[in-house]
Specification:
alpha+beta; 110 residues; 5 strands; globular; single chain
């Protein structure tokens, strides 16, 4: 499953969530995390989205747990949208319905 996480303009929160994901052993064991879309070629640390490739339902559950823990560490909920690239399987769809992720539609990402 391929996911794109957009910050809705809150670049600092996106960077913090990316660091949070990369620091979570369970997430990094079950997903590939990359970033894309530098705003300013002079700022090599800037990016617009987090891209994740998750290969199992356990990996998807780990993302949900990491998201919940990240939210509890913050005073305000960041304006994130997670977009699924492609059609989820029935099992993935069932898991997604049980997770409290800020899911959006692919047309919302562009």
């Amino acid at each position: 499953m391929e996911l794109t996480i957009n910050a809705g303009g809150d670049e600092q929160a996106l960077k913090e969530f990316c660091d949070w994901l990369r620091g979570d052993v369970d997430v990094t064991r079950s997903a590939t995390i990359t970033t894309a879309g530098s705003w300013d070629s002079g700022d090599r640390g800037a990016f617009e989205v987090i891209r994740m490739s998750i290969g199992s339902l356990t990996g998807l559950a780990n993302l949900g747990i990491a998201w919940g823990n990240f939210l509890r560490s913050r005073e305000e909920t960041p304006p994130f949208t997670i977009t699924i690239d492609g059609e989820p399987t029935a099992e993935q769809d069932a898991m997604l319905r049980n997770l409290d992720l800020p899911l959006g539609r692919p047309e919302d990402a562009g």
